[in-house]
Design a protein that fits this description.
83% helix, single chain, mainly alpha, 65 residues, elongated, 3 helices
């Protein structure tokens, strides 16, 4: 939750500075990280359920960072 609050605060700061290209670029980077994690899970779905869920969690944490 704190990383989400920090991201919201930083987006508000970028809006105040009218840096829309930076804001949309950051959004694109987060979405690419999430899609990459989902693609990795789809290729690695032969194992148990715990492995892909852990991989998705790691991908989402990297997207937030």
């Amino acid at each position: 939750m704190p990383l989400a609050l920090l991201a919201a605060l930083w987006t508000t700061h970028l809006q105040h500075r009218r840096d829309f290209s930076g804001m949309y670029g950051a959004n694109l980077a987060v979405n690419l990280a999430i899609v990459g994690a989902l693609l990795l899970i789809s290729f690695d779905s032969g194992r148990s359920v715990a492995g892909p869920i852990a991989l998705l969690g790691i991908g989402l944490l990297l997207a937030c960072a």
